Amino acid sequence: MAEALDGLPPAVHGMLQNVAIVIQEWPTRRQMREQGVGDRYDLLGLYEGTPIAERDSTYGMVLPDKITIFKGPLEAMCPSRESLAQEVRKTVVHELAHHLGMDDEELASLHYD
Question: What is the spatial distance between Cα 106 and Cα 104, in angstroms, rounded to a whole number?
């Protein structure tokens, strides 16, 4: 997983300010419930925080936003290390788009869903 993150383009790394990326084996029941997901294999990543587009002058002194990558579902869907690395990169970029303020509909309109 770390190799996949290291392989992200420099422009993506530049957007990862005040954002922690963590790897978790599986989503918790709470995470699944809050995302409206019933099958733990369906949640590959999760962004938690305040999107940059929603921050105002009162935003400050907060913990970093968090992008969680779920190892179990990703490994289950990827038959090779190469496909796993590709899917991890795709998931990080997807969650980073949420950090920037894009929702799933906007990502779908860009054909990045």
Answer: 5
